[in-house]
Amino acid sequence: MSKAGILLVDKPKGITSRQAIDMVQKWFAGKLPVGHAGTLDPLASGLLVVFLGWSTRLAEYVQNMGKTYRCVFLLGAKSATDDSEGPIEAVEGVEIPDLAQIENALTKFVGWIDQVPPAHSAAWVDGKRAYRLARKGREVSIAPRKVCVKSIQVESYEYPRLQLTIDCGKGTYIRSIARDLGELLGTGGYVENLDRISIGNFLKENALDPNIKPENLDEVLLPPHAALVQLPSYTLPMEAANRMCLGTAIPLPETIKPEHEQGEMILFDETGRFRGLVKMVFAGETKMLTPVKVFHESE
User: Cα(110)–Cα(167) distance, rounded to whole angstroms?
Assistant: First the structure.
């Protein structure tokens, strides 16, 4: 089979993302490096985008894609971990909010917002992971960071359970939204269930169960450049493509559209083979096409 590619995996609840990846790596007898984009907590389930071989160098492009989660928040209580792992503390004397109050409160969490990651998270604090400090009973102070939440849709609500679909950008913690919504409502709140259903154009419905090895891996393996669908592509003659893969910049071809000059482009050679990523730079007043990442192993 191919030396590199992408697999979509549906991580079950109750295992770490690393354990799911290790299960997939056994399909290849451990002979290929395997990585992934977008870690899920053990109590979360859903889509992992898994990279095989040299395609791991493209994981950052998937990390930057938007993500969609289907989740259930439990109101009326607080959790030290902001999810059902707990410990859980009930909030007394709660005034049960109606749907209109819920929907109004949720508008505060859409757009670019300042968000404090959970104390039990992989965020860095003084050079250490926050969850490691929190598990030792240390006070954890994490600075807020800007994240983008594109939309929050209420799917159902029957107190204390609130089911939502959330579309968000890189670095967004759904647990923080549950915690902060609970604080705003005065009810407390935490994530009871979390399922990632998409990353960019990758869908959970197309993902594999890591417990079941496919009969034909080549049939389910996506090409490495599937990680780059948000970028324009360009085809060069074989000789020019080979020069690019040796790290040589070439004069910008006139056929490249002006709107593509400001960012990265996927490079194919004239046989349709994926060769890497390129971008336009200036050498004096001359526009040059220069390599960003090249893949001599690509097929």
Answer: 9
Cβ distance 130 to 169 under 8 Å?
A: no
Handedness of CA 40, 152, 201, 192 (dihedral sign): positive
For the segment 160-181, the average pLDDT, to the nearest whole number, is: 96
pLDDT at 200: 95
Please give the Cα distance from 164 to 71 (Å, whole number).
Answer: 5
Indicate the pTM of the whole model.
0.88
Q: Determine the pLDDT at residue 250.
A: 86
Cα–Cα distance for residue pair 15/40, rounded to 1 Å: 9
**Cα gap 88→153, rounded to integer Å:** 26
Q: How far apart are CA 236 and CA 221, in angstroms?
A: 26
Q: Residue range 16-38: average pLDDT?
A: 87
Instruction: Report strand pairing: 67-75 vs 264-269.
Output: unpaired
Which H helix or E strand runs over 24? helix 17-25
Residues 6+ apart with CB under 8 A from 143: 116
Using alpha carbons, select from 221, 227, 210, 106 the residue that is nearest to residue 168: 106
The phi-psi region of residue 247 (left if phi > 0; otherwise alpha if psi is between -120 and 50; otherwise beta) is left
Which domains, from first to last, does the chain contain? 5-64+201-224 (3.30.2350.10), 67-199 (3.30.2350.10), 231-294 (2.30.130.10)
**What span, in angstroms and rounded, lies between the C-alpha atoms of 251 and 31?**
40
User: What single letter denotes the amino acid at residue 40?
Assistant: L
CA distance 16 to 267: 35
Distance in angstroms (rounded) separating the CA atoms of residues 198 and 151: 14
Burial class from Cβ neighbours inside 10 Å (0-12, 13-18, 19+) for residue 146 reads exposed
Contact between 90 and 76 (Cβ < 8 Å): yes
Catalytic residue among 10, 41, 180, 269: 41
Query: Average model confidence (pLDDT) for the chain?
Result: 88
195 belongs to the catalytic site: no
